[in-house]
Amino acid sequence: MSRKNIVALFVMLGLGISIFWWEARKIDFRSLVTTFKSLNYGWLAVALLSILLSYAVEALVLHTLLKKKEDRKFGVWEMYRIPLIQALFNAITPFSSGGQPAQLVGLMQSKIDPGRASSVLLMKFIIYQAMVLVNFVVAMVVSFRSVAQHFSGLATLILFGMVIHLITISFLLMVMYYYDFTKKMVHVILKPILFFLKEEKRDRILKSTIESIDSFYNESLVLKREKKKVIKASLLTIVQLFLYYFVVYFVLLALNCDHVNVVDVLVMHIMIVMITSIFPIPGGSGGAEFSFKTLFAGFIPSPSGLILGMFLWRFITYYLGMFLGIIAVSKKPKIK
C-alpha cells in the first residue's frame, strides 16, 4: 500500500469512530454494555460466516470467469485474496474507484497476464452491476411503496441511486451493441465539458476515455461468446449478494429481534446499498449509518440496541473487509 492509501485508511477509520461516537453520545454507556452482554453470539457468528462466505463466492465467480482448460491450478488463497483486496480499496476510495485497479495488481501478482486479468475483471464488474440492479428492481416491486410511504426522504435517495445504476448499465450496453454511436456521443458530450481545460490535457482525457471504450468493447465480444460462463457467474453473483444482504438479518437476530420479517429486512438492506452508492465519500460513510438508523429504527425498539446493531452491521460489512484486505495485500501468493 502506498502512503496515500495508508493515510486514506486511517482517515476512514477516524471518520467511522467519529460517526459512532456522535450517534452514541446521548446513549447511556451502561445500557450499551447491558445490550452487548445480552447478544446472541451464535447469530453474530452466523453473520460473520455469511460475509466470509460472500467473499468466497465472489472468489468463485472470479475463478469461473478466469479458468481455462490449459491453465495451472489456481490456489484457494490466490482467488480468495482478490475480493478482500477489492473490499479494502473500495473502502478507502471515493465511489469505490480503487477496487478494480487493486484487483488487477492482485491478479498480476499471481502471474496472470494483465490483458486477460483486465478482461475478466471487466466481465465480473458488468455481471455484478447487472445483478445488483436486478435485485434492486425486484426489491422495488416488493416493497418500494412501503418505503416511499414511511421514509419519503430516503425514497428520493433510493430512486436517485437506481437512476445512477441504470445509467451505468445502459452505457455499458450501448458500448456493447452501439459501439460507433457511443464513441461519437462521448465526444459530443465531453468536448463542451472539457472546454475550459488546456488543449493538451483535454486531448489526453478524450484519448484515455476512447481507449477505455475500445478496451471495453473488445472485452464485451468475449463476454458474448462465453455465455455459459456468464450464466454461471451471474447465478453465483446472486448468491454472493444474498449472503451479503443476509448479514443485517443475522445481526438483528443477534440483538434478539426475533419478530422481524426476513423479506422486509432484505429489501431494506438492498435499499441501503443503493443509497450508499450515490455518496462520494468512501464507503458511503455517514449515509450508510443514517440509512440504517432510519430504516431499522422500527425493528430495534431500544436506542442502545439500534446503535449497537448499526456498529455490528457496519463492522462486519465494511471495516472487517478493510482489515482482511490489509492481510491480503501483505500476504502475496507463492507462485512457482
UniProtKB/TrEMBL annotation:
Identification of the protein by name: Phosphatidylglycerol lysyltransferase
One cellular component term from this protein's GO annotations in UniProt: plasma membrane
A biological-process GO annotation: response to antibiotic
Membrane topology per record: Multi-pass membrane protein
Example GO molecular function: phosphatidylglycerol lysyltransferase activity
Catalytic activity: L-lysyl-tRNA(Lys) + a 1,2-diacyl-sn-glycero-3-phospho-(1'-sn-glycerol) = a 1,2-diacyl-sn-glycero-3-phospho-1'-(3'-O-L-lysyl)-sn-glycerol + tRNA(Lys)
E.C. no: 2.3.2.3
Function (record text): Catalyzes the transfer of a lysyl group from L-lysyl-tRNA(Lys) to membrane-bound phosphatidylglycerol (PG), which produces lysylphosphatidylglycerol (LPG), a major component of the bacterial membrane with a positive net charge. LPG synthesis contributes to bacterial virulence as it is involved in the resistance mechanism against cationic antimicrobial peptides (CAMP) produces by the host's immune system (defensins, cathelicidins) and by the competing microorganisms.
Gene: mprF
Domain of life: Bacteria
Family: Belongs to the LPG synthase family.
